[in-house]
Write a structure and sequence with these properties.
By secondary structure, this protein is α/β, with parallel strands linked by helices. Helix content is 28%, strand content 21%. β11 and β12 form a beta hairpin.
């Protein structure tokens, strides 16, 4: 069900209790004063989930309430938490350097705690409606508490693994809220989840945000991502599919971060959801190959992957 983001919730969100454990981490890597700040383990009380929930947030150097910033929401994988992106990745340093150089505009990055609940309502019958919490409580509060632009073109969402599924689901189902989705090593569908292949068929391509799928060639979900990309192509849904050497680990995910920031930052600057890629012609199907060059019969028509290079026919 598509949950709208009504304006009244921005007012109601002011009633939510928020506090901090006063843990503030200044991003390292620059010495010229252009360091952003990561506020970790911030707390928001959720009436929907009946508990306090945590989030961490990156504020760019010179952050001030006198201007508004675009926001990137990032979802962690199974077993992680709101600090995954800041502990295992150099994302704060990457953001600092790219903002300081002018490569990307100033932006806020929000990383919520998703527990192991798959970012959906009532995961495995647990009675916890996380998706409703995200859209009815967390987003309205964050975009009121911090100086964030609230139009679609100023919001993007990304994630890895379980968080990749959450990013894809939220970007598609709540397409009116996000201009871009960057899904890394993404779960496409598994037991207990509605597969993304089924979800996207419910929407017209013209209403969806831009999408990037990035996955390693030795990932658990390599073939799922290839076949989902092929389905998006056949449906005429604009997207990028990046496949490069790597597995399901932080070595791969950390290498994705600068590309994700560059993509999203460029779109924030342009104020558009347009992406540059070669649209596949679904009427022209080529042979399908695995990375070692052998033929693989699959539904993934229209895509060749030879020697690690993806060619769209």
């Amino acid at each position: 069900m598509n949950i709208r983001f009504p304006k009244i919730l921005l007012c109601l969100s002011l009633l939510l209790t928020a506090c901090s454990d006063d843990q503030e981490v200044v991003a390292q890597g620059l010495t010229d004063g252009s360091k952003g700040t990561v506020l970790r383990n911030q707390t928001i009380h959720s009436e929907i989930l009946r508990r306090d929930m945590l989030y961490s947030i990156y504020l760019p150097a010179g952050y001030t309430d006198s201007k508004q910033y675009p926001v990137l929401y990032l979802l962690h994988g199974w077993g992680g938490d709101q600090n995954e992106w800041w502990v295992y990745d150099d994302m704060a340093d990457d953001a600092d350097a790219m903002i300081a150089s002018g490569e990307v505009p100033e932006m806020i990055i929000l990383t919520p705690d998703g527990q192991t609940w798959r970012y959906i309502d009532n995961w495995n019958g647990n009675g916890l409606d996380y998706e409703q919490y995200f859209f009815k409580e967390l987003m309205p509060y964050i975009e009121t508490r911090y100086s964030i632009r609230r139009e679609r073109q100023s919001r993007a969402i990304g994630g890895f693994s379980m968080g990749g599924y959450g990013a894809l689901r939220y970007g598609v189902v709540h397409h009116e809220l996000f201009s871009y989705v960057y899904a890394i090593s993404s779960v496409i569908g598994e037991s207990g989840l509605t597969g993304m292949g089924s979800i996207v068929t419910n929407y017209q391509p013209s209403v969806l945000p831009g999408i990037t799928l990035e996955c390693g060639d030795r990932d658990y979900f390599t073939y799922d991502n290839r076949e989902f990309s092929a389905q998006l192509t056949q449906l005429g849904i604009a997207h990028e599919h990046i496949e490069r050497s790597g597995g399901h680990d932080w070595k791969f995910w950390s290498a994705c971060t600068p590309m994700m920031l560059r993509k999203v930052g460029g779109l924030f600057r342009q104020g558009t959801t347009a992406i540059r890629f070669t649209r596949a012609d679904s009427s022209k199907h080529a042979a399908i190959y695995t990375l070692n060059g052998t033929r693989r019969d699959t539904l993934q028509k229209g895509i060749n992957i030879i020697n690690g290079k993806k060619i769209i026919r």
